[in-house]
Design a protein that fits this description.
Helix content is about 20%, strand content about 20%. It is of the alpha+beta class.
Length: about 270
């Protein structure tokens, strides 16, 4: 189940570098528990009930389960508050090769950041050199799961650029994936702290033109925009709707994302594309 903006009742909090804002999962308040009628045995006082944690909901039927697919954005609602680096997947590196990715093994040891207030690093990282579509990247250091998401992203960005612009994307203009820092005003680590996020500022086409989020996304108050804006908006929505990434934040989310599209593989989900 896609938990979009309803999941994020939290305030948007700033990313680094480009002054963007990142968000964390919103706390969910349980509904008030009505006191049992006095005559109903066994009698339980309201105070006793208030101190008793609610019974966990039974798991859904197997056919309806939406547990996390490690190769997609996280759609499992049960682990929103499980912060920390991404999991290690035994077959991730072989999956990269099967996805057509050219990569190099890398290391990003876990360490404390900001005086021990949060942790940084990841146990399974790679340098992403080339993807299946041959799109150019600046060899970012990313988590292995993020690298697989980037490979799938290449297929979608090509499809969307051909649909809206009649030209193929050949390069991605992106920021640094890894930055050891917390989400601003919190002690929660940013997904950038785990090399598990990417900021996309624009794209290069096969005719050497560039498409810029800042210049061509268009006013969010306007539904009708030039083809470049249609491309950027349609791309972002597919990345979220098809769970390529967990979170996709665009200028629709807030003004701090006016110049880039933020994508990550956090354990919670935010739809910032509409």
């Amino acid at each position: 189940m896609l938990r979009s903006a309803a999941l994020v009742a939290v305030s948007a909090i700033a990313l680094s570098g480009c002054g963007s804002r990142e968000v964390g999962p919103a706390p969910v308040r349980p509904p008030p528990v009505a006191a049992l009628p006095p005559a109903a045995p066994p009698a339980v006082s309201a105070s006793a009930r208030a101190d008793t944690p609610p019974e966990p909901a039974p798991p859904p039927a197997a056919s309806a389960q939406t547990f996390h697919d490690p190769w997609r954005g996280n759609t499992d609602p049960t682990d929103n508050w499980n912060g920390g680096p991404p999991e290690v997947f035994a077959d991730c590196e072989s999956r990269l090769t099967s996805e057509g990715v050219t990569w190099r093994k890398a290391s990003l040891p876990m360490r404390s950041g900001q005086g021990g207030k949060h942790t940084c690093g990841a146990p399974q990282v790679v340098i992403y050199e080339r993807g299946p579509a041959g799109i150019g990247w600046n060899s970012p250091l990313v988590s292995c799961g993020m690298a697989i998401a980037m490979a799938r992203f290449e297929r979608i960005v090509r499809e969307e650029s051909m649909k809206h612009l009649k030209h193929a994307v050949t390069g991605v203009l992106h920021g640094t994936a890894y930055q050891c820092r917390p989400i601003t005003a919190t002690t929660l680590a940013s997904e950038h702290s785990f090399a598990n996020a990417m900021d996309l500022f624009g794209f290069v086409l096969d005719d050497h033109r560039q498409v810029s989020v800042l210049l061509q996304f268009g006013p969010t108050s306007e539904a009708s925009v030039p083809p470049e804006g249609q491309f950027l908006r349609s791309l972002a929505r597919r990345l979220f709707d098809e769970a390529i990434f967990s979170n996709v934040l665009t200028p629709y989310f807030n003004a701090d994302h006016r110049d880039h599209i933020h994508v990550d593989l956090a354990r919670y989900r935010v739809d910032g594309t509409r």
